[in-house]
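Entry 14. Structure prediction run on the chain below.
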Amino acid sequence: MSTATYAMRRNQNLARTGTELKLGPVSATVVMILTITVLALLYLNQITKSSVFGYQLSALQAQQKQALQSKQALEVEAARLTSIQQIQNSQAVKGLVPTTQVTYAK
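Output returned:
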C-alpha cells in the first residue's frame, strides 16, 4: 500500500462494535401490521386456489356423471339391438309360418 493509504487508515479503529437495531413503538406497530397483512394475503391466496380447484372438481364430476349416463343409455340400446337380432335368428322364429288370412273372434 502507498503511504497515502497508510496515512488515511492510520486513524481508524481496528475493533468494530456491532450495531443494534432498536424498534420504537411506532416502528414495531408498522412491522406488526405489515406482517399481518402479508400473512392475510398468503391466506387469501391459498383460499382462492382451493376454491378454483373446487370448481374444477365439480365440473369434472358433472362431466363424469354425464359420461356414465351416456354409457348406460348406450348399454340399453346395445342390449335392445342384440335381443332383436337373437330373436330373428332363433330356431323358433325360423320355424314360424307367415299367415295370409287373419280372422278375429267376436
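The first helix runs from residue 3 to 9.
Filed with the rest of this week's runs.
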